[in-house]
Amino acid sequence: MVKFCPECGGDLKMDSSTRNFICKSCGLYASRDKIEELKDKSQISSSESRQRTHDDYLDWWQSSKKEKQRN
Questions:
Q1: What's the average model confidence in pLDDT over 23-35?
Q2: Hey, CA dihedral for 49, 53, 56, 62, is it positive or negative?
Q3: 66, 58 in Cβ contact below 8 A?
Q4: Which of 6, 9, 25, 71 is the most exposed place for a label (fewest CB within 10 A)?
């Protein structure tokens, strides 16, 4: 069961008449399929962000080592 909004992390409540979810915080109104799709996109962008941060750190680390070797 979907409990949290993929956009803001707020509480989701189901509208029983339309079978869609409504976020109490940001007002997102979407079907279960759309919520799952947004959650998947969020997870993918999060892992890409972590990878970029990791790559940036490695670049910094390698450049600092090279600078130390020159001195």
A1: 91
A2: negative
A3: no
A4: 71
* Residue 34 CB partners (closer than 8 Å, separation 6+): none
Q: Are 35 and 12 in contact (CB under 8 A)?
A: yes
Question: Does residue 7 contact residue 21 with C-beta atoms inside 8 Å?
Answer: no
Residue 12 has what pLDDT? 92
Asked if 22 and 12 touch (Cβ cutoff 8 Å), the reply is yes
Q: Is the pLDDT of residue 21 over 90?
A: yes
What are the sequence ranges of the domains in the chain?
12-70
